[in-house]
Specification:
By secondary structure, the chain is of the alpha/beta class. It has 15 helices and ten strands. Strands 1, 3, 4, 5, 6, 7, 8 and 9 form an eight-stranded mixed beta sheet that branches. The chain has a two-stranded antiparallel sheet with strand order 2-10. Helix 1 runs parallel beside helix 2, helix 1 packs antiparallel against helix 3 and helix 2 packs antiparallel against helix 7. The chain starts with 9 loop residues before the first strand and ends with a helix.
């Protein structure tokens, strides 16, 4: 293996995508760490997280290993760090109540406006009542509080300024539409957990998060990856993971995959999913082209699902029940991608003191995540049987003696 350069300046940029995105990123990152010799995901120089990717980035910057993230976020093992599905689905009762309290006054104002200006029409009258509609269905305060607990444990920190590695969590200022990078000077006093809560506040699902008198929402509204945050800091190699790509049904069928009906027949959820993916990915493509021209001395490696991967697409953006299967798919697909791109990736990785474990990638991979818990359970059973056997031997020896 080539000797690593003295200052490699390695960065990681993680995009969003709801629970789906975070789960995909865990599987993809597990494959990368396992398959790239010299890559330590907890010892990079800069981490950038957007939306769902912000928690993964913050956890890695805090020294939490990818297997530990998997255990808490996907495996759902009992414990204080476990990220349970209900954490994302608690009704925003406070927001409902606050908006409901404004309804009588809004009704009175709308009625008066309609009475004094009847030419405005019923639609204008109804539009005025829009202020009473809650800004989010689910309460994201529990998300911020949960991550605050995770990052406040011994050996970790909820303070950007106390991290050994640079971490930037990107959110969008709702009133200006501008991207804000928490972790930068002037924004590094904000708790990491609060920044994660703001960065993942997808409009419509979660209410905006107020920080220093400003309202913040999902960081992906402006750009998809924000890898420029790491490149601006002088990173020479930035590894990017983007879970969200639009589905190409025609290519999937042409390659021998199962034929799918037209996506419109899947109803509103499928149409919205495809629309969201297309918007996100088109911006990503534009951003990558700019990176290549603006940061000529740096390398940017992107890992994402194939456009014709029907299994990935039809998992659903906000699906959580099939998280183990999705993580396994992300792991296996990333391994396949690394092997397919080996000739392209090896020179790039070598420039930064990294090496692709091609031989390991060429070997058949057994499922790593789809049967989580079974190897551990088998090990515990074996240990219990060994203890039982030892106890029986002891009892027999005592009796015979």
């Amino acid at each position: 293996m080539p000797r690593p350069p003295r200052n490699r300046f390695l960065g990681l940029a993680l995009a969003g995508g709801g629970p789906f995105g975070a789960i995909y990123e865990v599987g993809a990152l597990a494959a990368l760490q396992e398959s790239v010799e010299g890559l330590d995901l907890n010892a990079l120089d800069c981490y950038v997280g957007v939306s769902a990717g912000s928690f993964i980035a913050a956890a890695l910057a805090n020294g939490i290993g990818i297997d530990e993230i998997r255990a808490s976020f996907i495996d759902g093992r009992p414990g204080a760090d476990a990220v349970r599905p209900d954490l994302f689905m608690r009704p925003a009762l406070g927001e409902y109540a606050r908006r409901a309290r404004s309804l009588p006054l809004l009704l009175a104002r709308s009625a008066w406006r309609h009475a004094t200006r009847p030419t405005g029409g019923a639609l204008e009258w109804l539009a005025a009542l829009g202020q009473a509609i809650p800004t989010g269905v689910f309460d994201n305060r529990a998300i911020g509080e949960h991550f605050q607990g995770i990052f406040s444990r011994p050996g970790r920190t909820d303070d950007f300024r106390e991290l050994r590695r640079r971490l930037y969590v990107v959110a969008t200022d709702l009133d200006s539409g501008e991207s804000v990078s928490f972790g930068r000077p002037g924004r590094d006093h904000v708790p990491i957990s609060k920044a994660v809560q703001a960065s993942s506040a997808l409009p419509g699902l979660f209410p905006p998060v107020e920080i220093d008198g400003r309202s913040f929402v999902d960081g992906a509204l402006k750009k998809t990856l924000h890898a420029s945050e790491a490149l601006d800091d002088g990173m020479r190699l930035v590894i990017c993971v983007n879970p969200i790509v639009p589905f190409d049904a025609r290519t999937a069928a042409r390659k021998g995959g199962p034929p799918h009906r037209r996506l419109v027949e899947g109803g509103l959820p499928v149409v919205l999913s495809q629309t969201f993916r297309a918007i996100i990915h088109s911006r990503l493509t534009v951003g990558l082209s700019k990176y290549r021209s603006q940061y000529r001395g740096a390398d940017v490696l992107l890992f994402q699902p194939a456009a014709d991967d029907s299994e990935i697409f039809f998992t659903g953006l906000f699906g959580y029940a099939s998280r183990r299967r999705l993580c396994e798919l992300a792991y296996q697909r990333t391994r396949s991608d690394l092997l397919a791109r080996a000739a392209e990736l090896e020179p790039t990785l070598a420039r930064h003191g990294l090496k692709l474990r091609r031989r390991a990638l060429e070997e058949a991979s057994v499922p790593r995540f789809s049967a989580w818990g079974l190897p551990e359970a088998a090990g515990n059973l074996r240990a219990s049987l060994d203890e039982l056997e030892a106890w029986i031997r002891t009892e027999r020896a005592a009796t015979s003696g």
